[in-house]
Amino acid sequence: MRIVFAGTPAPAVPSLRAVAASAHDLVGVVTRSDAPLGRKRVLTPSPVAAAAEPLGTPVIKADRLDAEATGAVETLAPDLGVIVAYGGLVREPLLSMPRHGWINLHFSLLPRWRGAAPVQHALIAGDRTTGASVFQLVAALDAGDVFGEVRYDIPRGATAGEVLTDLADAGAELLARVIDEIAAGTARAVPQRGAATLAPKLSIADGALDLTRPADVVLDRFRGTTPEPGAHVGIAGARLKILAAHRGPDTDLAPGVLSVSGKDVLLAAGEGTTVVLKTVQPAGKGAMAAGDWWRGLRLDDPRVELPGAQVAS
Fold it and tell me: Most Cβ neighbours (<10 Å): which of 119, 140, 141, 147?
């Protein structure tokens, strides 16, 4: 089959490579335009664009699958479209253009967590099992029939970035198998069953940790928003990003109170629990050990701001 692949971030790269290594023809890659990255805002190709370059496959850079992008895909005469975290919607007439339509690798067990941030929402919600699904793309959000899925037990303490890395590899294997089955005419898709939950894109505000909640709930949000959009707390009117943390001992300190424990910093949470801060990143500075950050504080009564306080960006 002639396949067009659409994807953008790093978790889509294993799938791109799996398609390229298959017995099928990868005739084109669609990805979002180069984006400014880093403090110097240097225009940088997407991870998928960078991975496609050595393959010698034509690359279409488009932030929306508009008429121009649709025309470019049409010239490639694809039999199947494959999309993995592209970051945009496939609408008609592009949706029906390939003979077999489009299939989507999605990082959840559908219909749970339909949307742009399934892994992040799964961790925030405290899910202990998730997975990846390959389904037929339809106009409704992540609602098509499912060709196959792989289940995944979330390791204790794993962040969204780590889970996505694992699912990207497992999902690429699943995707390659489904593509072969479609080509052979043996693929069978079944309707999604059960109640759907939504996983919209997260904002910076979603990374705010509510220290009035118990530590396990706080850490679920920390893991779900790490590395992006970034877990953080407010202290002295500034944002402190939390890069590494785990469960601490029980305490009689009020939520939000900070105390030092050797090289680490304890942050009191709700119901007499604590979170151990290992690595942090103060606003405008690089990552550092929490203990080093603590020693540089110039506060008489250091404590984290609780919900309702205004935090500077």
Answer: 119
DSSP summary character for residue 191: -
Q: What is the mean pLDDT of the chain?
A: 94
Is residue 113 within 8 A of residue 135, CB to CB? The reply is no
Are residues 1 and 80 in contact, defined by beta-carbon separation less than 8 angstroms?
yes
The C-alpha atoms of residue 244 and residue 291 are separated, in whole angstroms, by 12
For the stretch 117-132, pLDDT in tens is 999 999 999 999 999 9
Residue 16: its H or E element? helix 13-20
| DSSP designation for 228 | T
pLDDT at residue number 14: 98
Angle, nearest 10°, between helix axes 160-184 and 13-20?
A: 30
Beta strands in the chain (DSSP E): 2-7, 25-31, 35-37, 42-44, 59-61, 80-84, 102-106, 129-136, 146-153, 232-235, 238-247, 258-261, 264-268, 274-282, 288-289
DSSP label of 154: P
Dihedrals phi, psi of 291, to nearest 5 degrees: -65, -40
Residues of the chain with pLDDT under 50: 309-313
For residue 196, the tally of other CB atoms under 10 A from its CB is 14
- Phi, psi (rounded to 5 degrees) for 285: -130, 175
In the prediction, which pLDDT does 310 show? 43
